[in-house]
Amino acid sequence: MRDRSGDIERMAELYVGFGANLQPGQLLGVTAYLGMEEIARAIARAGYRRGARYVDVFWWDPWIKRARLEHADEATLDYVPPWVGQRMLWLGEERAARVSLVGADPSAYDGLDPARTGKDVMPYVKETPVVVNEQTTSWTAAPFPTLGWAQQVFPELPPDEALDKLWEQVLHTLRLDEPDPIAAWHERMDTLIAAAGRLTERRFDAVQLRGPGTDLTVGLLPSSKWLAADFTTIDGQKHYPNLPTEEVFTTPDPERVDGFVTATKPLEFYGARIDGIRIRFAGGRAVEIDADTGAEALRGIAAKDDGASRLGELALVDGQGRIGPLGTVFRETLFDENAASHIALGNAYTFPVEDEADLPRINTSAVHVDFMIGSPEVEVDGLTRDGQRVPILRRGDWQL
Amino acid sequence: MRDRSGDIERMAELYVGFGANLQPGQLLGVTAYLGMEEIARAIARAGYRRGARYVDVFWWDPWIKRARLEHADEATLDYVPPWVGQRMLWLGEERAARVSLVGADPSAYDGLDPARTGKDVMPYVKETPVVVNEQTTSWTAAPFPTLGWAQQVFPELPPDEALDKLWEQVLHTLRLDEPDPIAAWHERMDTLIAAAGRLTERRFDAVQLRGPGTDLTVGLLPSSKWLAADFTTIDGQKHYPNLPTEEVFTTPDPERVDGFVTATKPLEFYGARIDGIRIRFAGGRAVEIDADTGAEALRGIAAKDDGASRLGELALVDGQGRIGPLGTVFRETLFDENAASHIALGNAYTFPVEDEADLPRINTSAVHVDFMIGSPEVEVDGLTRDGQRVPILRRGDWQL
Description:
Two copies of one chain form a homodimer. By secondary structure, chain A is α+β, with helices and mostly antiparallel strands.
């Protein structure tokens, strides 16, 4: 197994200096899972070197959660200690920078009863989307390769090799294999921001995706705006909420989605793997849900509430990204949703909607489940209000 | 290195079931250092099996703190994030059980500037003594042997042997080498409670300690009461705040301490080791402080504020305890203060004072530093108001 200490230092610098864009005097909140000590400590050092007023690490241990899921009285499983949400609101009030690490060992939850696991969504707390939508913190969600994660991604390899391979792929997607990663990121973001700008400019009435097993038309709202994942806080601080990121995305019209779609990658959801998803939409609603494996789990998600069977997001991923070409199923949404164009059942983001009059029309739900429907074979077109068809993506290349 | 999984399970049961005495439906707060994953997870399992409503683990990483002490602007080092204190107050309001683990690797702070380290006292927060004095939580402070701690205690041994030896000594002091540890604890506590009761009954005016290099008279308040470390919350829940515990203690009169004293064990304080302490007291105040090494550090502590040079505690430890006979310097106050009779410079506990009229007379300070002054050679006498001398301890045996 290779020594990763240099990679970890450069990773921490990227997350703190570029992703969260920490400014001198700012607080830095970090969410880290047990098993991520090295990167958390490197982030703390990077934060203090850049003048952080305080680096506050929220540690989360999946094995403590497992003890709860195994032994606690079921009626108590939705209890959330108040300080976790208070801490998130404090980071918002303090205009903090935030780094949220992903890549925890998912095997901690092996063999648990899904009916119980679904009741405890910690470390997620309801205050997190509040702070995200208030745009008060400069945040990034970014990976750390743990052994447990690597073994899920490359189960056919010996553990050490699996971890090395995951490291190499993660470093590649983070552009940390470039001599100047930040320049590489700026170049990539320029492409995505330009594509998003051109898509917004056209004010398409709908987007159509056509390919093997897919012919889906997704209606847009009059003021649906396309965004790349470069955000700005209400105080004007730039940050990159996902590292890596390859998508441009918008909030669709949840009443106007029609046709059928076949997923191009498996979906991981609370430890369940759903393969070969096929969904038929009519009038915005998923009216038929099938899959090769795990169909029941997906139907369960879509039945969670009224908005769970309607779309909350449409995202396009071109062929120049670094995740899709690897062909790896990372079993982490941060990676897999940036591998290919995707849609999400459930809750919508408010900020891609420019006109307040459109806000009441967007989808709301307790869930937000992304799944991949794009590939080089899938053609993406824009449909104008006067019935014209405008090519958007062909074989992964922007046509606008 | 021996497999400790069985020991860890029994340790967790002792801490949760006996020390904190968790009741069904109660919250359980745990303070754990990184490196104590095994015991924290065993405590969580033990807690949930006993019906904990939720087990809330506060993780603390000395290496994240080191990053701060090395790199942060000195003016920010006294900043404390509000949620840490809010969490402690919440545990009090919820009438939680609490387990606070000790035994973290002290080498995380090696080589740091003491002037900077003294400014950051986290994870200690000012809300902790508030909740302790309110007696709303059923808590225990208890050890977990980490490799870093073991190497400090037995630097002459190879690391594996040092850890094994520390484990054996810790299990012995916890009575976990007994077939029925709880029965052994009840038996020991009965002795200590009886000794404390007899001491309280006599209402001594003062206690005198005489031995090699020591002739010290410590005045008591009219309502100074002697206690063993079995506590009861305001709701009547028994708990054992220290495991192991061997002491009976009281709150002295900070105006009436006279004579000289020689420490019988070294004192560890924020990574500094102070050997051969010799102090002369007059009118309650430490007027001369000497030591073989580290005298300056101790003088610095005593100059911290007005109460730092006066006594806040007098504790007697008999010869039947399990720590003193080992002859080990554990470099952890929880152990070393239970090895021999001791006094503490600084802040006093309120609960050993029975009469509210005496409360304004007790010592107050920002510090509380215990150091050991007892040994089998030190004779302890009670002095009555009418000038009689009553033997209390001779060669470690109770005389009352």
